[in-house]
Design brief:
The structure holds 2 protein chains of 2 kinds. By secondary structure, chain A is of the alpha/beta class. Chain A has one domain: Alpha-Beta Complex (Amidase signature (AS) enzymes). An 11-stranded mixed β-sheet of chain A has the order 1-3-2-4-6-5-10-11-9-7-8, sandwiched between helices. In chain A, helix 9 packs across helix 17. The longest helix of chain A is centred in the C-terminal third of the chain and has 22 residues. Chain A starts with a helix and ends with a helix. Chain B is mainly alpha-helical. In chain B, strand 1 and strand 2 form a beta hairpin. Chain B has a domain of 47 residues: Histone, subunit A (Orthogonal Bundle). The relative contact order of chain B is 0.07. Chain B contains 4 helices and 2 strands; from the N terminus they run H-H-H-H-E-E. In chain B, strands 1-2 form a two-stranded antiparallel sheet. In chain B, 37% of the residues lie in helices and 4% in strands. Classes of the chains: A alpha/beta, B mainly alpha. Chain A: One of its GO terms (cellular component) is glutamyl-tRNA(Gln) amidotransferase complex. Chain A: It comes from Agromyces fucosus. Chain A: It is an enzyme of class 6 (ligase).
Chain lengths: 511, 100
């Protein structure tokens, strides 16, 4: 029973909860048991709510019994990326500098999932302040990919993606600044959506780069992502970059799942050199399936995408160096006083030296440099111009097609340590995901199969014009149906059974 | 563009208030040089006729009425996570050093 519960989609679990077949306490308990069994090996969580989650679930069960009107995800457990602040739950953003901090308020997306009756299970691991593509930059140790525990789960939101891939949670919240939702989805065989910039409030999201960050759903299927998207999207007066217009239902778009006459543009620059053969093979097979269903596949060019990574690695550190100035040892988090005392400035410097990891220091220094007098125009100014050029590439492409498609990332999951010594090669991993953040457009990654050469998951990415998130759910749902018919079920059904062969590792991890 | 020196990195670390060790400065000097080399290609296409973009979605400034909202923290809540506080204030060490 317990194993059956954790393998249900969020939508299916929600339906069983609504019909009274299962209680939220039972569903929550099943997921907590799963976390206890496998998270020693996976390490998706930095904090688990435990009995408090059971209490929350019991309250939802009481409301349901009393006949309260509840939404489709009420009573469904959810994991929350540690970048979002949570009242009464530790929030570290993967950094030592926030170890033990308990925020006094909830981020808006957290408020919304609580209002929808969902049960927060805990906080998921991430690269420190979301700086990374592997979770190897987490101050609390990496998360392991449930498909192969020696490999990275993607990043920065590797914890959220691994938690749903390992059936520790039916769905999770993530954040995407340059691919931190979509690239982990790609390497773990899960679904991740970066909504249009401003669709979901950033209030209470510990900011990395404010003009790029966006909160979004992390799930095992497209419908669950849509249901969660519908919960968290919407205008928030507490975020002045929040889009005021109303949104159509993403779940309705999933139920439409009709690609006849849909024009899909294949981005030429993201379909060749540097992309693993199996990644490209699964990508083209997916396109053929869609074409058979009546979609029209056309090649488009985005000539400035090759400059996007360079622009991103100037804009992101610039914004991050400013955002991370708030970690000053005064209002929250760590304080380290130099031996024999010191001025507030010396305390601040000692705290930041001890509290930040190497990647965070690297990017703060880089950002400080890019913004400094004499270099501002050449670096930050030029990067902002590239941003315009990338947006123009999107505008030109979307004048001719409804959605764009590419592999989500160039390779399948790499092994731990493989790219740690070379920051530039780590940065290249984000080549297909970064342009969407620079332009603010929405993107989805869903599984397109396993790469034949290594048996690891591969994702396909669709991008739509700003505010047209529903198009992603429509095409994503259509492709998912076609692929699952071919596979005979979800891709994750082919993942290794962690509960049997990883028990030893779990026990070792607990020692 | 110019090469990055260890003195520059030390200066940047001071501006960013991070007490880097000499070893870290040495390491970062090499890495920053490599990263800046990789990103300076932005200047190839950033010609004077291209306007800069700072924000992905065009937006107007947002105003609200100047009234106290419903999400305001109490002093106790605001101070709850502070490393050190005194009554209703954040407490820090001396602002000025002896020589100042």
């Amino acid at each position: 029973m317990s194993d059956e519960l954790i393998r249900l989609s969020a939508a299916a679990l929600g339906a069983k909860l609504a019909s009274g077949e299962v209680s939220s306490v039972e569903a929550t308990r099943a997921h907590l048991d799963r976390i206890a069994a496998v998270d020693g090996a996976v390490h998706a969580f930095l904090h688990v709510e435990g009995e408090r989650a059971i209490e929350t679930a019991a309250e939802i069960d009481r409301q349901r019994a009393a006949g309260a009107p509840l939404g489709p995800l009420a009573g469904v457990p959810i994991a929350i990326k540690d970048v979002l602040v949570t009242k009464g739950m530790p929030s570290t953003s993967g950094s030592r500098i926030l170890e033990g901090w308990i925020p006094p308020y909830d981020a808006t997306p957290v408020t919304k999932v609580r209002e929808a009756g969902m049960i927060p299970l805990g906080k998921t691991n991430m690269d420190e302040f979301a700086m990374g593509s592997s979770t190897e930059h987490s101050a609390y140790g990496p998360t392991h990919n449930p498909w192969d525990l020696d490999r990275i789960p993607g990043g920065s939101g590797g914890g959220s993606a691994a938690s749903v891939a390992a059936f520790e949670a039916p769905l999770a919240l993530g954040s995407d600044t340059g691919g931190s939702i979509r690239q982990p989805a790609h390497v773990t065989g899960t679904v991740g959506v970066k909504p249009t910039y401003g669709a979901v409030s950033r209030y209470g999201s510990i900011a990395l780069a404010s003009s790029l960050d966006q909160i979004g759903p992390v799930t095992r299927n497209v419908l669950d992502a849509a249901l969660l998207h519908d919960v968290i999207a919407g205008h928030d007066p507490l975020d002045s970059t929040s889009i005021p217009e109303k949104w159509p239902s993403m779940a309705d778009a999933v139920r439409r799942a009709d690609v006849s006459g849909l024009r899909i543009g294949v981005i030429k620059e993201l379909d060749g050199e540097g992309f693993q053969a199996g990644v490209r093979q699964r990508f083209h097979e997916s396109l053929e399936l869609l074409e058979k269903q009546g979609a029209e596949i056309v090649e488009v060019s985005a000539p400035h995408f090759e400059y996007a990574i360079a622009a991103y690695y100037l804009i992101l550190p610039a914004e991050a160096s400013s955002n991370l100035a708030k970690f000053d040892s005064v209002r929250f988090g760590l304080r380290v006083t130099p031996e024999g005392g010191g001025t507030v400035e010396q305390v601040m410097s000692a705290t930041r030296e001890a509290g930040f990891g190497p990647e965070v220091k690297r990017r703060i220094i880089l950002g400080t440099y890019a913004l400094s007098a004499g270099y501002y125009d050449a670096y930050y100014g030029s990067a902002q111009k590239v941003r315009t050029l990338v947006q123009r590439d999107f505008d030109a492409a979307f004048a001719n097609v409804d959605v764009l498609a590419s592999p989500t990332a160039p390779t399948t999951a790499f092994k731990f340590g493989e790219k740690m010594a070379d920051p530039v090669s780590m940065y290249l991993n984000d080549i297909a995901t970064i342009p969407a953040n620079l332009a603010g457009v929405p993107g989805i990654s869903l599984p397109s199969g396993l790469a034949p050469e290594d048996g690891l998951p591969v994702g396909i990415q669709f991008l739509a014009p700003a505010r047209e998130d529903a198009r992603l759910y429509n095409v994503g749902a259509a492709l998912e149906q076609l692929l699952e018919a071919r596979w005979g079920g979800p891709l994750l059904a082919q993942a290794p059974d962690l509960s049997s062969h990883e028990l030893t590792a779990t026990e070792e991890g607990a020692l | 563009m110019s090469e990055i020196t260890a003195e520059q990195v030390a200066h940047l670390a001071n501006l960013a208030r991070i007490a880097l060790t000499d070893e870290e400065i040495e390491h970062l000097t090499t890495e920053l040089g490599q990263i800046m080399h990789a990103v300076e290609q932005v200047s190839e296409v950033a010609t004077p006729d291209v306007p800069p973009t700072s924000h992905p979605i065009p937006m107007q400034n947002v105003f609200r009425d100047d009234v106290v909202g419903t999400t305001v923290l109490t002093a106790d809540e605001a101070l709850a996570g502070a490393p050190e506080s005194d009554d209703s204030r954040f407490k820090v060490s001396a602002i000025l050093g002896e020589e100042q």
